[in-house]
Amino acid sequence: MDMNQLDWQRAVPEGEDPPEFLEVAAGPDGRVYLRESRDRDQVVVTTQAKWDAFIKGVKAGEFDDFVA
């Protein structure tokens, strides 16, 4: 799969342009692709179910210790 054909999205706070960020894309194969903006050739692949569980954990505050 050509990673450049994926619709990569990133979360950037309004009015900011951080030097580093994560990019996420949903693949046509149902998998979720993640990469860092500084190393776009290294891509991590996960399943939709694992991604959904991660997002639920973020929303529930399970990872708040990482930003405190």
Task: For the structure shown, list the relevant keywords.
68 residues; alpha+beta; 18% helix; globular
Percent of residues in helical segments? 10-25%
Overall pLDDT level: 90
Strand order of the largest sheet: 1-2-3-4
Poorly predicted runs: none
Q: How many H/I helical runs?
A: 1
- Cα-atom radius of gyration: 13 Å
Structure write-up:
The protein has 68 residues and is α+β, with helices and mostly antiparallel strands. It is globular, with a radius of gyration of 13 Å. The model has no long low-confidence stretch (mean pLDDT 90). It contains one helix and four strands. Helices cover 18% and strands 32% of the residues. It has one helix spanning 48-59, and strands at 9-10, 22-26, 31-36, 39-47.
Write a compact overview of the structure shown.
The protein has 68 residues and is α+β, with helices and mostly antiparallel strands. The chain has one helix spanning 48-59; strands at 9-10, 22-26, 31-36, 39-47. Strands 1-2-3-4 form a four-stranded antiparallel β-sheet.
Give the helix/strand layout.
Elements: E1 9-10, E2 22-26, E3 31-36, E4 39-47, H1 48-59
